[in-house]
Amino acid sequence: MENIISLKDIVVEFDGEKILKEISLDIKDKEFVTLLGPSGCGKTTTLRVIGGFITPKSGEVIFEGENINSLPSHKRSVNTVFQRYALFPHLNVFENIAFGLRIKNVPKAEISKRVGEMLELVNLSGYERRNVARLSGGQQQRVAIARALINRPKVLLLDEPLGALDLKLRKGMQRELRRIQQQLELTFVYVTHDQEEALTMSDTVVVMNGGKISQIGSPTDIYNEPVDAFVADFIGDSNIVDGIMARDCFVEFAGRGIECVDKGFAPNEPVDVVLRPEDIKIVSTDEGQLTGIVKTVVFKGVHYEMIVDGGEYQWIIHSTKHEPVGTQVSMRIEPSDIHIMKKTKEI
Amino acid sequence: MKTKLLSVPYLVWMGVFMIVPLLMVAYFALTDDNGTFTLNYITDVGQYANVFVRSVGLSVIATVICLVIAYPIAFLLSGLKQHRSMTIVMIIMLPMWMNFLLRTYAWMSLLGNNGYINHVLGLIGIGPYKLINTSGAVVLGMVYNYLPFMILPLYSVMEKIDPSLYEAAGDLGCNSRQVITKVVFPLSVPGITLGITMVFVPAVSTFIISRMLGGGSNLLIGDLIEMQFLGNAYNPHLGAAISLVLMVIVLLIMTLMNSFDNEEQVLV
What's the angle, vertex CA A56, arms to CA A228 and CA A216, rounded to 5? Predict the structure, then answer.
């Protein structure tokens, strides 16, 4: 697959503060890419650089092989779905969606045809004459998507488009966005701080932190093989504790030496040990590696979430079975479920 | 019930100081000295048609000039950071804290035949020009005095426009001129109508500006009314009749403009 957009060493500064620190990123054609990170990590800024609303201080924005650094937003073949939709309050649904085509002086008959198609795509047929201010959040969202897509952009940029919707609506819209992306075979660049959203929708997830890219990979890779403690912590719940790599494939943490599969660290190097809550198994006493007392049990639907007090650390455990509060339990972790990360200073 | 009670002071105020005087104006305009009903004074107003035309004409010119000057200023202000725009708004408001008479009087000494402007022009060998006692001077006085009343409503409407709408317009293919015509203008229409009202209404009924800057030859409706009550031509019945006719004219113009305003919003 071709790269449709490449960012090369992009630096963005506001009032002397570096928002993006030499970001480099390749986006493949027809891919659903999600920029994921906590607020202030630079994900929206990256999106705005692609959209042409921010000119980077240095670095290159390459679109289909051409440098578009100085191309203003109205000449780029990308369109944006804005965070708070930014629908035109003086125009009705039809005119909002038709806006881009009117600017390009597309013939009237074609405009009505294409607006009709778009309304069908986002399931809003029959809403043509509605005032956009009187639509629900989800409906406004659909209008914003239709308004962007009608221009047949090569890339659609979405800036936390589902942030203002309630959970149930958000789930529905996630599926719908994915369907639209696959149906139209478009490249989507999607910004969110919701890790679950990123994992369920994307082909590629770009985890950002402090103006830098921490990791780029498929959702499975990001979840199973986080590169550092930040990514591990941000993607899903994690138990992150201090450990010492005694030798290859053997790590000491929480007062125990436990076998693992990681190699290549210096002897006795301090490391972060990341354990996913579902990887800590409750076992019989003779199999156990760690022990603790169950502090709380919360039913989460599919599983129970238990907090187990192990003295030095509190462990979060996800399990389909639960032990009553106050019982002493033994815990075991398979070597391949122990993730060892080099220490990062940013946490 | 409670909220209705709260409106009582205002209703009393309205009744005593707005409704009653209006009725009295109407009564004076439609009766003679003996208190009998007559339309003579209303028909007499007809002979001053030229004054009405001049008043409305000069006020329309002044209003248009105000709009042309104020629109870009207000737009630029709306794009500034809050504390900056507030400072500039203060500077714009500053002359308004000075007495109206004094401000207009200052223009007299600037524009006079031996005034500062002609003096400076004389130094570089041109002039003197007749600046004062012209209709141009009256329009200048109106623009100078009423410009803030155009800037403020425009600014307060534009400031509330979500800047992401401009980005959205750019994203959808608008160049900066189209952003103005397709987004800023239609959304600022309420500010335009309010600004026009706030400039045109006081301009059309002013008498100080025309008296001080227009000389005898630029009599406006305001001067005419003032003469009937305080001047030599003392005739409160005629004065009331002129006021009544002026009010009707202003109401008609405003209704016309508002209907245009509504149409605008449907069309765009």
Answer: 25
- From residue A32, alpha-carbon distances to A8, A85, A124, A314, B86 in Å are 20, 20, 24, 37, 44
Structural contact between residues A149 and A7, judged by C-beta atoms closer than 8 angstroms: no
DSSP state of A250: E
* CATH (domain of A12): 3.40.50.300
User: How many domains would you assign to chain A?
Assistant: 2
ipTM of the complex: 0.78
Q: Which two tokens stand for residue B167?
A: 């980005």
Measured distance CA(A248)–CA(A279) in Å, rounded:
21
The residue out of A208, A229, A250 marking a domain boundary is: A229
Enclosing domain of residue A258: 230-342
- Cβ neighbours of residue A106 under 8 Å, at least 6 residues apart? A114
Residue to substitute from A15, A47, A74, interface B, most B β-carbons within 10 A: A74
Which residue is listed with tokens 């009937």? B228
Alpha-carbon gap, residue A195 to A207, rounded angstroms: 9
Same domain as A258, residue A160: no
Tokens of A141: 């969202």
Instruction: Inspect the interface and report whether the beta carbons of B265 and A90 lie closer than 8 Å.
Output: yes
Assess whether A241 and A321 both reside in one domain. yes
Same domain, A196 and A325: no
pLDDT in tens, A211-230: 999 999 999 999 888 888 88
Residue B188 with chain A: CB contacts under 8 Å: none
How many CB atoms are closer than 10 A to CB A220?
Answer: 10
| Smallest Cα distance from A203 to chain B, Å | 25
Instruction: Give just the sign of the alpha carbon dihedral A44, A47, A51, A56.
Output: positive
Determine whether B90 is exposed, middle or buried from the number of CB atoms within 10 Å of its CB (0-12, 13-18, 19+): exposed
Q: Of B190, B234, B182, B226, which Cα lies nearest the Cα of B55? A: B226
Of A203, A229, A255, the residue at which a domain comes to its end is: A229
Nearest to A85 by CA among A153, A151, A154, A138: A138
Q: Point out the residue among B164, B171, B182 whose CB comes nearest to the CB of A73.
A: B171
Q: Which residue has the tokens 């696959």?
A: A182
Interface of B with A (CB under 8 A): 162, 164-165, 167-175, 178, 182-183, 186-187, 265, 268
Strand, coil or helix: A345:
coil
The domain of B101 spans 49-236
Please give the Cα distance from A56 to A49 (Å, whole number): 7
Residue B167 with chain A: CB contacts under 8 Å: 53, 73, 80, 82, 86
Mutation target vs A (from B172, B176, B177; most A CBs, 10 A cutoff): B172
Phi–psi pair at A33, nearest 5 degrees? -105, 130
pLDDT digits (tens, 9 = 90+) for A61-79: 999 999 999 899 999 999 9
CB B107, CB B137: distance < 8 Å: yes
Please check whether residue A89 touches B, CB under 8 A. Answer: yes
Beta bridge partner(s), residue A92: A131
List the Cα angle A147/B174/A131 in 5-degree steps: 40
Chain A residues in contact with B164 by the CB 8 A cut-off are 82-84, 86
Mark the ranges of chain A whose per-residue pLDDT is less than 70. Answer: 1, 344-347
Residue A110 maps to a domain:
yes
Residue of A nearest to B190 (CA): A90
Question: Could you tell me the pTM of the whole model?
Answer: 0.79
> Are residue A260 and residue A117 in the same domain, yes or no?
no
